Amino acid sequence: MSLKPALLGVRFLLELIALVSFAALGWRVTDNPSRWLLVVLLPVLAAAAWGVFAVPDDPSRSGAAPVAVPGPVRLGIEFAVLWGGAAALWVAGLPRLALFSAAAMLLYQVVAYDRVIWLAKR
After folding, report:
1. Per-residue pLDDT for 42 more than 80?
2. Residue 79's pLDDT is what?
3. Nearest to 41 by CA among 56, 53, 30, 54
4. What mean pLDDT comes out for the span 6-24?
5. Which end of the chain is more exposed for a tag (fewer CB within 10 A), N or C?
6. Coil, strand, or helix at residue 102?
7. 67 forms bridges with which residues in the sheet?
8. What distance in Å separates the CA atoms of residue 100 and residue 36, rounded to the nearest whole number?
9. How far apart are CA 79 and CA 46, in angstroms?
């Protein structure tokens, strides 16, 4: 189920929402000029973790793993980035968006249960 193009598109959209959420946190956490650094740095760190650490032969990716990790580690990274985006919105003082984001993440995880199970067993 999780490899259907529509669901892969939803996952990509959720990744983008998480990255924007980290940027929003960087913007709202402080009023001084360092906010610009945080707006760039927080999403870049999340994107780097998402892109670098992968399970070899993951069918939802190219199959390449720049840094090969076991499935449970990858699952933890995915949860940290996706759910971290919702948490970032909450901390940024945007509770409605945080709840909407968390609901979307939960719905995705339920629908893509086969991927969660696959990663947990890898």
Report:
1. yes
2. 93
3. 30
4. 94
5. N
6. helix
7. 53
8. 26
9. 11
Average pLDDT over residues 8-21: 94
- pTM across the whole model: 0.89
The owner of tokens 């968390």 is 102
Q: How many CB atoms lie within 10 A of CB 103?
A: 11
Residue 46 contacts residue 61 (beta carbons within 8 Å): no
Calpha distance 4→18 (Å, rounded): 21
Quote the pLDDT of residue 48.
Answer: 95
Q: What type of residue is 35?
A: R
Burial label, 76 (beta-carbon count in 10 A; 0-12, 13-18, 19+): middle
Question: What is the C-alpha to C-alpha distance for residues 49 and 67, in angstroms, rounded to an integer?
Answer: 10
- Residue 46, Cβ neighbours under 10 Å: how many? 23
Residue 72, CA distances (Å) to 24, 42, 45, 55, 99 in order:
28, 23, 20, 9, 25
Q: Mean pLDDT of all residues in the chain?
A: 91
Token digits of residue 28: 């709202």
